Amino acid sequence: MQPLFLLPGREKRILQGHRWVFNNEIDGRLPDFEPGSWVEVFSSKRVPLGRGYINPRSLIAVRLVTGPGQEPTREFFSELLRRAEEKRTLLYYPGSTCHRVVFGESDGIPGLIVDRYGDVLVIQVTTLGMARMQSLIQELMVELFRPAAIVCRNDTSVRRLEGLPLEKGLAFGELPEDIRVNIDGLELRVDPLGGQKTGLFLDQRDNRRALLRWIGGKRVLDLFCYTGAWGLAAARGGASRVVGVDASAEAVDQARSNAAANNVADRCEFIRSEALQYLRTLRKGDFDVIVLDPPAFAKTKSALPEAQKGYTDLNRRALLALAPGGLLVTCSCSYHMSEELFARALLQAARAGGRQLRLMESRGQAPDHPVLLAMPETRYLKCWFLEVV
């Protein structure tokens, strides 16, 4: 294992628990290291900081995995996977068979996402170092979890930053034709191969539950609804009417099917449309509650100015469609959109719409997407409940 030395003063962030080493923090020639190989990281004073894998072509050159002198053995990774699943099923969501099993650095395995949908596991590998370990990870998951199938969703664009191809497919077992999961009493169908991300968006689970106190007898609009989870939770929780809107025909069809499976089709309508286009058709006061859960508008820091305009316009139009005293549940899953910038966009939206907003709840991602306090990058989701006053 090659040693790697940091420039003077660059170890402070690592000592606090951050798990990344950037390429401008390294003392020496990066091309001398084999992409994807393991290195032992030392401070400029030769103090060992930990071991991880390196990609000289990436801005994030090293992702630390173990502590100083700790070997990244098969047993080491087996224990990390076992512990991660145990936390979910015993502590976060007792008895759960649908959750995120591994959330990258927050669970000690950078570059790896694992979601569980009953007997089906979906893995996503985002880094070169983890790609070289993918076979081992799959073997360990078969041993530990005995899944019926493992699906690889290595089709996320961030892989290009690591020089990795985009691909997806069945890695193990046989995929059931009809995969359904139960989340807080809501039955949802999952398409691990054809759906967005890994099949479902699990990070809003607790936020959907929190919505229930606000929607009794209310008219609810669920924008960017995907397969309908927000809207269906509202309907099950007592909403008088639910409209879900998504640009994907497949998602809308699935949302309708999910509504029927949960016996709420009589109160749910799902429409294929772009969100802004649909909002332009509404009158003032058409809805009592509006949920805005869009995809990431700012995937890079350079995209922030345009993203902020997008958030402002979307929320302004949503506010115009809300009845007085209504509730806006608005979200951003862009890490680069800080809480300060998000608040600024919402204030601009409120001012343009002639509304005042009162923050009732400031929420984030579900506990199976844990935040590593030393790594702000692991905290990405903002979900704010705002009362229109």
From TrEMBL:
Keywords tagged on the record: Cytoplasm, Methyltransferase, S-adenosyl-L-methionine, Transferase
Gene Ontology terms: biological process: methylation
Keyword tRNA processing: no
GO cellular component, one term: cytoplasm
Domain S-adenosylmethionine-dependent methyltransferase: 177-340
InterPro entries for the chain: PUA-like_sf, PUA_sf, RlmI-like_PUA, SAM-dep_methyl-trfase, SAM-dependent_MTases_sf
Coiled-coil parts of chain: none
Family recorded in the similarity comment: Belongs to the methyltransferase superfamily. RlmI family.
Protein's name according to its UniProt entry: SAM-dependent methyltransferase
Lineage per the UniProt record: Bacteria, Pseudomonadati, Thermodesulfobacteriota, Syntrophobacteria, Syntrophobacterales
